[in-house]
Amino acid sequence: MFLEQSINSENKFFKYIWGSVLIIFASFVGQILFVAVLLYDSSTTDKNYPTTNDALMRYFDSNLTLFLILFSFVITMVGVYLVVRSVHNQTILSVTTARKKVDWNRIFFSFSIWTNFTIATTLITYYYNPTEFIWNFKPIPFAVLAAIAIILIPIQTSCEEYIFRGYLMQGFANLARNKWFPLLMTSLIFGGMHYFNPEVAKIGPLIMVYYIGTGLFLGIITLMDDGMELALGFHAANNLVGALLLTSDWSAFQTHSIFKDISEPSASFDIILPVLIIYPFLLFIFSNKYKWTNWKEKLTGKVEELNPTIINK
Fold first, then answer.
1. Which end of the chain is more exposed for a tag (fewer CB within 10 A), N or C?
2. How many CA atoms lie within 13 A of 313 on its CB side?
3. pLDDT-based confidence at 267, cuts 50/70/90?
4. Is the pTM of this model over 0.90?
5. CA-to-CA distance for 3 and 266, rounded, in angstroms?
6. Which spans are transmembrane here (predicted)?
């Protein structure tokens, strides 16, 4: 039902190409504020304009940098909404779920599961390897971080989910008229978008297994559950709790978090542990709670038009 909601005689794949261009344009518009603030500061102070990504991330205080980065997703999310409504004549609900309304209980359940797991594993790691962490907590910077993160990170993660598990997944379903191709393509693109993260340069290409595997996991729970609610909750918990709890000099987000990881990262089994063990265990939990069945059909079956008009129009 979720993918079928986009199948319509007027909703051709070329519209998704055009819509993707508009969403990318909205993303660039969202970055104008960051560029403007950089230009103003570098021209009114003795600081040089950053020419590398590392210099860019360290130019301002991490809280301001985080705000400026996350703000661009607000504009991008507006772009996604306008594209869905204007280009495809769909409601945002039809790109979110096959249910009659968004199931917030699913979002909160997924969020709580991954939040508790992240906190528990971080504390256990800290207990057994205390020399790899330093106490980084500073009340005022952390309070500012919390305010920024709680408001903007859910927008950032929701924006990514609407693009990959919603918009593009339905778009590739229009092209291929099956389910396995959208699942595979969105996972590869999602992973590829993380290729330029500083973690890749520091750890090596093995971490791409984690990024692509995470995209695959989020795609599977979206297709099996006929909606993005579980993916929305998981992604928000992953980025929000991660930003508040732990940072490092080589991570994508530099934050005034509670802990700072000072260990030297390396490509090891820990990188692919979530893909091989943790994600399958989460699939087991979700499948039992929500009574998922007919896995083969939901993940690889055909996608056909349900009726002459777009659902939830």
1. C
2. 13
3. confident
4. yes
5. 39
6. 16-40, 64-84, 107-128, 140-159, 180-197, 203-223, 230-247, 267-286
Question: What own/partner pairs with CB < 8 Å and gap ≥ 24 does 239-243 have?
Answer: 239/153, 239/156, 239/157, 240/149, 240/150, 240/153, 240/154, 240/157, 241/114, 241/115, 241/118, 241/119, 242/118, 243/66, 243/145, 243/149, 243/153
Calpha distance 147→137 (Å, rounded): 15
Contact (Cβ atoms closer than 8 angstroms) between residue 55 and residue 254: no
Task: Please state, in angstroms and rounded to a whole number, the distance separating the CA atoms of residues 279 and 273.
Answer: 9
Residue environment code for 94-106, b if the CB has 16+ CB neighbours within 10 A, otherwise e: bbbbbeeebbeeb
What are the beta bridge partners of residue 227?
97
